[in-house]
Amino acid sequence: MRKDLSKNLENVAKLAQISSRKLAILPAEAKNAVLEDMASALLANTERILSANKKDISACKGKNKVFIDRLTLSDSRIKQMADSLLEVARLKDPAGEIIRSWEVSSGLKINKVRTPIGVVAIIYESRPNVTSDCIGLCFKAANSVILRGGSESLNSNLAIFNILNKVVLGAGLPKGTINLIDTVEHEAVDVLLKLNNYIDLVIPRGGEQLINRVVNSSRIPVIKHYKGICHVYVDEQADLNMAENICFNAKVQRPGVCNAMESMLVHRDVAARFLPGMLKIFKESQVEIRGCALTKRIAKWTKLASEKDYRSEYLDLILSVKVVDSLDSAIAHINEYGSHHSDSIVTDSHESAEKFLKEVDSACVYVNASTRFTDGNQFGMGAEIGISTDKLHARGPMALEELTTYKYTVYGSGQVRQ
Amino acid sequence: MRKDLSKNLENVAKLAQISSRKLAILPAEAKNAVLEDMASALLANTERILSANKKDISACKGKNKVFIDRLTLSDSRIKQMADSLLEVARLKDPAGEIIRSWEVSSGLKINKVRTPIGVVAIIYESRPNVTSDCIGLCFKAANSVILRGGSESLNSNLAIFNILNKVVLGAGLPKGTINLIDTVEHEAVDVLLKLNNYIDLVIPRGGEQLINRVVNSSRIPVIKHYKGICHVYVDEQADLNMAENICFNAKVQRPGVCNAMESMLVHRDVAARFLPGMLKIFKESQVEIRGCALTKRIAKWTKLASEKDYRSEYLDLILSVKVVDSLDSAIAHINEYGSHHSDSIVTDSHESAEKFLKEVDSACVYVNASTRFTDGNQFGMGAEIGISTDKLHARGPMALEELTTYKYTVYGSGQVRQ
Fold it and tell me: Residue B153's closest CA among B257, B41, B69, B256?
């Protein structure tokens, strides 16, 4: 059984690699036409997708509300999936772009050219829209894709995949251009992660446990889309009204996402002026506050934060608060306790802003803005495949360009090495 | 013992991370002054390095000539190490460069800024010059470095490291900015590879066994510097004189390096005209030829190649030869049997050249030039840390720029997300 599984998955990956070479030479217009047909096919098959989704939902009775909500599709969610595919079709084709061009003293003319990566595997949980979003982005970047979704959404994923794969095959593209691993065996992921001869990149999207499992057993390069413990630091020279707006937005506007603020740091010289009003506003919005001793002295109703709180991604209406001595302490705290995702300083001091931007070791560092802007669309990159918390290859919002690599093409006229 | 080792190495990595944040804010002039002092210190301590090197060499009696040659230092090799450090000092500081800058509709101004990676670990074999080359490049890119060399060169590595570390500490930089793991325990590598909370990147440089070991057990992102099975394809429309020069240079000028040609492909329509003269020239230079059946028919004295030959990196005066039907067959052969390192086509056809450049899935693809040019210096990048055969983050020659990452710095005026 186990041996069969290995053999099957190896064949899938092999075929994906062969297909990726065909896909790599497909012109942009042909790719865009397929993406538009994919969008139409999703809309035309809405009923079929919803009925598959119902099977998944009824098998998940007893799970909590957030879980069910993530899993559930609707007409409007399917419409969103189709719209995303159309948006990806409109994005500029990244492949073939000449990133840089120069001539060296030997007379060789060197181009650094953007190219597809090859085969990308994505391992994800619950949300079935990830299936079509990832297929669309990988297809546009001309990468073959191998998807492995969670068992809880298998029926929904299969329905979406089959609809999209029919479009791909109908366009004359080879089997293996897009792939969904639908075996129920749990160990399929571990087998997949050893196929580094065929798969070039694996992107895990999900909880800590999934990410750790992938990192621990993968021989394939991994780009992690990990947690967001994001901070807003209110500097001694902050405009306190602006700080209030930014902190409120970063925490409350959508608390369940990775770019929401989980921890608020306040310079001690403004704590007594800033915190009472700010914390009252949070209280009115049902935000639970877990603060340091100084926070608690200023607002007695708050809870005392533990060390663990400052390392927690709540994804909920809970906020840890800490009063700090200095900008240096704020930076040190963020680098130590944060997740290197998105952090913001509110300040009118140019000097403090520049120091914060330089020394905070995070993917996105803000001055006078909410951390909630960390997003491919908000950054003007179009749809994103996720937000990388890694430093290699892609950092921060990961969109089409980050789904490519490069090669050097070198033009000579008979040069040999001396 | 094992627990002690883990604890010790974790402390090294932790300290390296803390030091990397100090190094990241050091101005270019200060870094360059340290690099110049490092070069002087190597020259001033030549005798000390040579005497340590003698200990390593005498412990390696019985090893083959190539092994001993790699290990052996001399006045001129130490001078080269010093010169490399001076060259790195003269290179432009990559950190802080604004890669791109744009404004989005929310009014946020976004900069994509080049930054150091953080902590880089390098695991390597035999050549002691790697110790100073890697320290120099990582230092200039403002990364802390953790080196783990082979036990056969431990005395040489330690001597070089101690001399350079004295310069680093003398400049007021923290302990942990540069590090050499000198424990003899073999398992140190495995322990190191689990420290993904502190180490951002690991680069293995060495044979297949070392690379596989690192890939199989690392939780840290790896950039491999793997083998080079490089091809030259002589097209039906090649200038055959040029082809002769290029093939000869690619094979013979320095056969022991990764960008040398290991396999020569020849279009069948020119095989009868090209091969007899070319193979005679190779024979005169003591190159052993392992060819396909057609090759053997043209030159009876050649050996018959096995399937394995076409997958072999000889690093020696041995060449596999294959006559192919078409450009498509040549491309398919290279993508299947090659190592995605460097491949060249010799042709006068613009169309064939462009097809080859586009479809060969290798880091460096050449038209009418020797594969031997794949090298950071030849590409005008300055000193290289190696040649990546991976596709993620760095592909091909990996120099200063590839030892950096980026972050987004975002300037707002109070923006919150709608």
Answer: B69
**Which of B115, B387, B389, B415 has the highest number of chain A CBs within 10 A, making it the mutation to test binding with A?**
B415
Q: How far apart are CA A157 and CA A175, in angstroms?
A: 18
Q: Which residues pair with A345 in a beta bridge?
A: A233, A367
**Phi-psi bin for A308: left (phi > 0), alpha (psi -120 to 50), beta?**
alpha
A106-120 as b/e: b if 16+ CB within 10 A: bebebbbbbbbbbbb
A25 touches chain B (CB under 8 A): yes
What's the confidence (pLDDT) of residue B184?
80
DSSP state of A347: -
Whether residue A369 and residue B245 make contact (CB cut-off 8 A), yes or no, is no
Q: Could you tell me the pLDDT band of residue A61, with boundaries at 50, 70 and 90? A: confident
CA distance A391 to A406: 18
Give dist(CA B281, CA A343) in Å, integer.
64
In the beta sheet, which residues pair with residue A100?
Answer: A112
User: Across chain B, how many H-helices and E-strands are there?
Assistant: 14, 16
CATH numbers and ranges of domains, chain A: 2-226+393-411 (3.40.605.10), 230-373 (3.40.309.10)
d(CA B221, CA B201): 5
Does the interface predicted TM-score (ipTM) exceed 0.90?
yes
Question: Of B333, B343, B350, B323, whose CA–CA distance to B269 is shortest?
Answer: B323
- Name the residue among B386, B325, B409, B390 with its Cα closest to residue B112: B409
Give A128-191 as a DSSP string: THHHHHHHHHHHHTT-EEEEE--GGGHHHHHHHHHHHHHHHHHTTPPTTSEEE-----TTHHHH
B396: chain A residues, CB-CB within 8 Å: 407-408
Structure tokens at A239: 């405009």
Q: Which residue of B has its CA nearest to A382?
A: B104
| Amino acid making up residue B61 | K
| Residue among A245, A254, A414 whose CB faces B242 most closely | A414
What digits encode the pLDDT tens for the residues A10-29? 999 999 999 999 999 999 99
**Does the pLDDT at position A342 exceed 60?**
yes
- Pairing, β B201-205 against β B178-180: unpaired
Q: Are A416 and B249 in contact (CB under 8 A)?
A: yes
Q: How far apart are CA A250 and CA A376, in angstroms?
A: 17
Quickly tell me which residue has 């190219």 as its tokens: A115
Length of chain A in terms of residues written: 418
Alpha helix stretches (DSSP H) within A193-326: 208-217, 240-252, 268-284, 293-298
Chain A environment of B190 (Cβ under 8 Å): none
**Structural Rg of chain B based on CA atoms:** 24
Nearest CA in chain A to B331: A21
Per-residue pLDDT reduced to its tens digit, A268-314: 999 999 999 999 999 999 999 999 999 999 999 999 999 999 999 99
Give the bridge partners for A122, in sequence order: A147, A203
The sign of the CA dihedral A60, A387, B146, B7 is negative
The pair phi, psi for residue B347, each rounded to 5°, is: -160, 155
Helix (H) / strand (E) element for A372: namely none
CA–CA distance, A114 with A407 (Å, rounded to integer)? 7
- pLDDT band at A2; cut points 50, 70, 90: low
Q: Quickly tell me which residue has 């330690």 as its tokens.
A: B158
Other CB atoms within 10 Å distance of the CB of residue B256: 12
- How is residue A164 written in tokens? 């999209």
| Closest residue of chain A to B216, computed from CA coordinates | A219
For residues B359-368, give the mean pLDDT: 97
In whole angstroms, give the CA distance from residue B250 to residue B103: 48
